[in-house]
Design goal:
This protein is of the alpha/beta class. Helices cover about 50% and strands about 10% of the residues.
Length: about 325
Amino acid sequence: MSTDENSLPAWDRIEGIPDPLENRRVFGHDETLDLLCARYASGKMHHAWLLSGPRGIGKATLSARFAGHVFRNPDAAKAPAHYVVPSHDDHAERQVIRGAHPNHLHMRRPFNDEKKKWRKDLTVSEIRRTVSFFGSTAGEGGWRVAVVDTADDLNANAANALLKILEEPPTRTIFLVLANAPRMLATIRSRCQKIQMRPPAQPEVIEALQHLGLGANVSSQDLQLAASLSGGSVRRAITFLLDDGLELYRRFAGIASGQRLDLSEAHMLAGELSAPKANDRYRLLLDIAHDFVARRIRGENEPMDAGSQPMRWEASTLAGWVEVWEKTRQSAHLAD
């Protein structure tokens, strides 16, 4: 990967892992990608699409690859009705990867130069970049593709600004609005064609991890466990493989699965995660705890105990685990 490709900034970039724009492969979403390509080739392409699904399943990667498809085929009438993997030296693809294609606008949380940190939301100034983007003549002819990544990050002013654009969209423009849990204005949702993207299956998560080079120095057992815990999110699987995420899961499962709570081990783990620089691991522990309780409610075993018989609860036991679920959510909220 060239230096310019690797320098693309993003607030949630994982060090050493390609940005979604740089990732040339889409895993688990071939049908969605082909659907968009077919609609584009039909000449009846809707101007706005809401692509929703859990964080880290590949929505941004899919949007980048579809943008490249549009730019390679500026005449929709001659475009293939399915996605064709481009050559490695494809000009349009390389421009999208570098964030340098004149017809591609990818909007996400901006960097605050004054405070030297990433902003916590997708601001109205970022959405207003569309003014100059749409005000110029489309470079290299053809269509423009604008990506909102993600709608969950839009503040109120940014959401209203986006709504105004969607109400009167420029010609030959495609909006791809990405959402982890679409809670944006109902008026925005109503102006988009909706696609609910399902998380990739476990084998596809493993394939994606291997494609990213994360399978070389990891045992097949750990690779399987990370994929099992990911819930279909490649990003989440990556966090389990980096920074001892699997070790954190095993420690928590060991504490929580015992007949009696090991208070000394629990306090030791809490002390480690209360450090100022341990925020990412703390967030990961919250996810681990929530999923652990959810598996108990569903009567499922832990992924590391997949070979054992499934659990069966009496109604009173199930009610107890539901209460634990509510209390863990409330405790996390109070801790924040």
